[in-house]
Amino acid sequence: MVSKRVCVGVILKPVGIKGQVKIKPFTNSLDTILKFPKLFLSNNEEIVLLSPTLNEKGFIISIIQGYQDRNSVEKLRLKELYINRENLKALKADEYYFNDLKNLVVLNQNKLTIGKVIEAFDYGAGVFLELNINGKISTLPFNKNSVLEIDLNNETLTVNSSFILS
Fold it and tell me: Taking the model in full, what pTM does it have?
């Protein structure tokens, strides 16, 4: 099932004493997160960024409307930021948002359930999936050789299990 909201970043921590926060964007372009009309926390609270700037390390530094000081923004530490799915561009048939891959049931090439997708990561050398396989954390390169089929309607991901890294 595809969720109505997509995670686009996380508030890392307060910066300074005037209520600024450091945000790590999960978008391809660092400033894309600033173009979305509305941002939300997981509890549906709308977040408005005031005077956001990008720093040299690719983080967003911003004040959040309604949070005036370091103590008030401290409770936002490690809170994820979401947007409404309708604000995203349509994807091609073989493209996926990382958020849509989370929690998919992992099937091996024989269609037997072997685990679940925990997370998707892009470390710069390609996308990897973090999997829970029989209670152990494993990784899988996300490419056409290792991922055989993605069925978002049935919430499954079929893989060539020989590519799973333990």
Answer: 0.69
Estimate to the nearest angstrom the gap between the alpha carbon of 98 and the chain centroid. 6
In 3D space, the residue among 90, 95, 80, 92 whose CA is nearest the CA of residue 127 turns out to be 95
Tokens linked to 42 = 């997981």
Cβ within 8 Å of residue 117, ≥6 positions away? 101, 102, 103, 104, 106, 129, 130, 131, 157
Alpha carbons 117 and 112: distance in angstroms, whole number: 15
Count CB neighbours of 126 within 10 A: 10
Handedness of CA 92, 163, 118, 132 (dihedral sign): positive
**What is the spatial distance between Cα 23 and Cα 5, in angstroms, rounded to a whole number?**
18
Instruction: List pLDDT tens digits, range 85-122.
Output: 888 878 888 888 888 888 999 999 999 999 999 998 87
Q: Residues 24, 25, 31, CA angle at the centre, nearest 5°?
A: 125
Residue 95 half-sphere exposure toward CB, CA atoms < 13 A = 6
